[in-house]
Design goal:
Number of domains of chain B: 1
Strand content of chain B: over 45%
CATH architecture of chain B: Sandwich
Order of helices and strands of chain A: EEEEEEEEEEE
CATH architecture of chain A: Sandwich
Number of strands of chain A: 11
Largest sheet of chain A: 7 strands, mixed
Oligomer: heterodimer
Radius of gyration of chain B: 13 Å
Structural class of chain B: mainly beta
Structural class of chain A: mainly beta
Shape of chain A: globular
Largest interface: A-B, 26 and 24 residues
CATH topology of chain A: Immunoglobulin-like
CATH class of chain A: Mainly Beta
Radius of gyration of chain A: 13 Å
Distance between the termini of chain A: 37 Å
CATH superfamily of chain A: Immunoglobulins
Number of helices of chain A: 0
CATH topology of chain B: Immunoglobulin-like
Shape of chain B: globular
Number of domains of chain A: 1
Largest sheet of chain B: 6 strands, mixed
Order of helices and strands of chain B: EEEEEEEEEEE
Helix content of chain B: under 10%
Strand content of chain A: over 45%
Number of helices of chain B: 0
Amino acid sequence: EAGVAQSPRYKIIEKRQSVAFWCNPISGHATLYWYQQILGQGPKLLIQFQNNGVVDDSQLPKDRFSAERLKGVDSTLKIQPAKLEDSAVYLCASSSIKDSYGYTFGSGTRLTVV
Amino acid sequence: SQQGEEDPQALSIQEGENATMNCSYKTSINNLQWYRQNSGRGLVHLILIRSNEREKHSGRLRVTLDTSKKSSSLLITASRAADTASYFCATAALSEKLVFGKGTKLTVNP
């Protein structure tokens, strides 16, 4: 079974620039999550999708972050404009009832804002 | 905000010893999960324990859950250098959303 795919693996941008991350979840997984992990901390949920609908985006900074899930499969997370404090690893995960809600995480995208 | 709180923040042991990490949480849960993260990589799901379960085993891993104390522990027996990683507990309510703690950094010295 293929895992959760994320790209790019690394990204360095200047503050005020924009950036986009892509995620392809495990086939058949209805639920998709984006997490932000700042160095030395645990992951923090940014947004949760169920198929192509948003379930929870309460911690997404909507003035600069946006996310969509195309046709209930792939998802993109965008930051525009980026700030220095957005430097973090962005993790995508998917889950299924059949897997008893255990998440499968991608390798993440490490973003550095300079 | 983070729900789980792991203890200790860092743990250093010798190969062959057992490692115990604890997690406390604040609100009612549906299940609690433990994850491992190697440096610079994604998280790997280790084990899930439901709120009506008290103990679960998987290989060298043993997880306990005490819902009355809102706490869980992860025991890794006969540790190996390859177990060196950060370990996170995460709690889920009915919404499936996982809320992670800050993690315990485990170092196993050969």
